[in-house]
Design brief:
The chain has 2 domains: 80 residues, Muramoyl-pentapeptide Carboxypeptidase, domain 1; 54 residues, PGBD-like superfamily/PGBD (Muramoyl-pentapeptide Carboxypeptidase, domain 1). The protein is 39% helix and 0% strand. The protein is built from 6 helices and no strands. The longest helix has 13 residues. The radius of gyration is 19 Å and the shape is elongated.
């Protein structure tokens, strides 16, 4: 893992007093949209922003630590699991996680998958993907890429 440019991977960087940058600006905009006043939208996490974070955390039953982590971001409406601009990660048998659960849910609503929504891309999920691909005249490779996601009705970009 390259830790120096991790920004592409984490939509939900941990922010606290003293932080600055684009992520803080985004935080300030979202706080303001929720009706909290972080002060100027200046990308600097100062005392006003911290006060707004604390009030927001209090009203959402979050730990009031003034630190913005995944839970606070999620409460602010950020989906922490999807890297920006890629709502359609390539999934293959063996993948696990929220994207796989989403895939299972979509296949289930279309009647191709009858198993548990367990977020595990196993043989049953693969079989559902193959029959879905075949129904849409897609390459039946069992790999869920942009074309399969799009056919499932996901807006990939």
């Amino acid at each position: 893992m390259h830790h120096n440019h991790d920004h592409g991977h984490s939509l939900c960087p941990v922010l606290r007093d003293g932080a600055s940058g684009a992520a803080v600006k985004e935080l300030q905009k979202r706080l303001r949209a929720e009706g909290y006043n972080p002060g100027k939208i200046d990308g600097v996490f100062g005392s006003n922003t911290k006060t707004a974070v604390l009030s927001f955390q209090a009203s959402n039953n979050l730990v009031q630590d003034g630190i913005v982590g995944r839970k606070t971001w999620t409460a602010l409406g950020v989906n922490c699991n999807t890297p920006p601009g890629n709502h359609c990660p390539t999934l293959v048998e063996g993948n696990t996680g929220p994207a796989t659960a989403n895939l299972q849910r979509l296949l289930k609503t279309k009647g191709f998958y009858t198993g548990k929504l367990d977020g595990i891309f196993g043989p049953q999920t693969k079989a559902a993907v193959l029959s879905f691909q075949s129904s849409k005249n897609l390459a039946q490779d069992g790999i869920v890429g942009i074309k399969t996601w799009t056919a499932l009705g996901v807006n990939c970009f």
